[in-house]
Amino acid sequence: MVKGSFRKSFGYALAGLAYALRTQPNMRFHLLAALVVVVAALWLRIEGRDFLLVLLAITLVMMAEMFNTALERVVDLCTGRYHPLAKIAKDVAAGAVLLAALNSLIVGLVVFYPYLLVFIRLLQSLGGDD
Ligand SMILES: Nc1ncnc2c1ncn2[C@@H]1O[C@H](COP(=O)(O)OP(=O)(O)OP(=O)(O)O)[C@@H](O)[C@H]1O
């Protein structure tokens, strides 16, 4: 009984994730970017704590995007018309996504900065060989 309801809840959660990925281009972009970053992090063998920070930043962005989508749907359910409160609710939710995205950008720059520096120096040394 408990097992069955857990399975159902898990199914609903997966359906929500699938809906967000199917209908939100931003969510697909976040997923693609996350895959690229995780592969780069594994390839560069970044430190465990840095890897956790990267995973946390990715999760925050995706969660914010999903809450934003959920809120948009609820607002649309409540009012099909223009309403200043609907605008505030949607704009605030969009602002949360922006904050999470900025955080992930900062985390990415801090964690990958040493590798970016090596890469830039490598490009410079290749460019200066003429
Ligand atoms: N009912 C409404 N009343 C007032 N302003 C709204 C309303 N619906 C949307 N807006 C304004 O339009 C912006 C975009 O809303 P919209 O729901 O189209 O979001 P979206 O990011 O394009 O999402 P999606 O494409 O997933 O529906 C909101 O941030 C808000 O400023």
UniProtKB/TrEMBL annotation:
<feature type="binding site">
    <location>
        <position position="72"/>
    </location>
    <ligand>
        <name>a divalent metal cation</name>
    </ligand>
</feature>
<keyword id="KW-0460">Magnesium</keyword>
<dbReference type="GO" id="GO:0008654">
    <property type="term" value="P:phospholipid biosynthetic process"/>
</dbReference>
<feature type="transmembrane region" description="Helical">
    <location>
        <begin position="92"/>
        <end position="116"/>
    </location>
</feature>
<dbReference type="InterPro" id="IPR033717">
    <property type="entry name" value="UDPK"/>
</dbReference>
<keyword id="KW-0808">Transferase</keyword>
<feature type="transmembrane region" description="Helical">
    <location>
        <begin position="52"/>
        <end position="71"/>
    </location>
</feature>
<keyword id="KW-0444">Lipid biosynthesis</keyword>
<protein>
    <submittedName>
        <fullName>Diacylglycerol kinase (ATP)</fullName>
    </submittedName>
</protein>
<comment type="similarity">
    <text>Belongs to the bacterial diacylglycerol kinase family.</text>
</comment>
<feature type="binding site">
    <location>
        <position position="72"/>
    </location>
    <ligand>
        <name>ATP</name>
    </ligand>
</feature>
<keyword id="KW-1133">Transmembrane helix</keyword>
<keyword id="KW-0479">Metal-binding</keyword>
<dbReference type="GO" id="GO:0005886">
    <property type="term" value="C:plasma membrane"/>
</dbReference>
<keyword id="KW-0812">Transmembrane</keyword>
<feature type="binding site">
    <location>
        <begin position="90"/>
        <end position="91"/>
    </location>
    <ligand>
        <name>ATP</name>
    </ligand>
</feature>
<dbReference type="Pfam" id="PF01219">
    <property type="entry name" value="DAGK_prokar"/>
</dbReference>
<dbReference type="GO" id="GO:0016301">
    <property type="term" value="F:kinase activity"/>
</dbReference>
<keyword id="KW-0472">Membrane</keyword>
<dbReference type="GO" id="GO:0046872">
    <property type="term" value="F:metal ion binding"/>
</dbReference>
<keyword id="KW-1208">Phospholipid metabolism</keyword>
<dbReference type="InterPro" id="IPR036945">
    <property type="entry name" value="DAGK_sf"/>
</dbReference>
<feature type="binding site">
    <location>
        <position position="12"/>
    </location>
    <ligand>
        <name>ATP</name>
    </ligand>
</feature>
<keyword id="KW-0443">Lipid metabolism</keyword>
<feature type="transmembrane region" description="Helical">
    <location>
        <begin position="29"/>
        <end position="46"/>
    </location>
</feature>
<dbReference type="GO" id="GO:0005524">
    <property type="term" value="F:ATP binding"/>
</dbReference>
<keyword id="KW-0594">Phospholipid biosynthesis</keyword>
<keyword id="KW-0067">ATP-binding</keyword>
<keyword id="KW-0547">Nucleotide-binding</keyword>
<dbReference type="InterPro" id="IPR000829">
    <property type="entry name" value="DAGK"/>
</dbReference>
<keyword id="KW-0418">Kinase</keyword>
<keyword id="KW-1003">Cell membrane</keyword>
<feature type="active site" description="Proton acceptor">
    <location>
        <position position="65"/>
    </location>
</feature>
<feature type="binding site">
    <location>
        <position position="65"/>
    </location>
    <ligand>
        <name>substrate</name>
    </ligand>
</feature>
